[in-house]
Amino acid sequence: MRLYFVKGGKRIWLSGWLQTVGFPIIASPLLISYFHDRKTEGPNTKLVLMKYPLFIAAAVIGLLTSIGNYLYAYGMARLPVSTSSIIIASQLAFTAVFAFLLVKQKFVAYSVNAIVLLAVGARVLAMHISSDRPKGESTKMYVLGFLMTLAAAALYGLILPVVELMYLKTKQG
Fold first, then answer.
1. Please, which pLDDT band fits residue 155 given cuts at 50, 70 and 90?
2. Transmembrane ranges (predicted)?
């Protein structure tokens, strides 16, 4: 995985865009569809076919997702896969906390049990790792990768409750 990323993070932004929406690949069919509709239906064709509050919320969630993907890709470039997967496993705890705070999701025995079991499973994967830091990686870059991966886990944990809140507020789901 480290071979894919350019040292210094110069191509990580492309990975974040591609992971999020397939940008710029998906832009072409959408533009073709819009111009086709405009040609057949006239100049009053709407660019956005959903309600604007929902569109704004979806755009914000998309932006948060792309930021999370960038943070995760940068962290993966600086950390070994085992370490980053353990950090990303903390997303479960972030999701549970944000769901509790934002959408008033209750903690029940099943959800607590699932979080504990998945966290223990991630910790078992981390056992017997001899060296954590990749060779040639400075302490500063390693810590930065660790913090960015942790921020990605927190952001991923925030996104799902925000999507549910968005649907509740816009009465779409």
1. very high
2. 12-32, 52-72, 79-101, 107-129, 141-163
Higher pLDDT, 11 or 87: 87
Q: Is 167 exposed, middle or buried (0-12, 13-18, 19+ CB in 10 A)?
A: middle
Confidence (pTM)? 0.70
Query: How far is CA 158 from each of CA 30, 53, 73, 74, 110, rounded to the nearest angstrom?
Result: 28, 19, 18, 19, 20
End-to-end CA distance of the chain: 38
CA torsion 96-102-104-108 (nearest 10°) is 0
What are the tokens at 137? 């990686």
| Per-residue burial over 81-113, b = 16 or more CB atoms within 10 Å of its CB, e = otherwise | eebbebbbbbbbbbbbbbbeeeeebeeeeebee
Give pLDDT tens digits for 36-76.
888 888 888 777 777 778 888 888 888 888 888 888 888 88
Residue that has been written with the tokens 């991923």 in this structure? 156
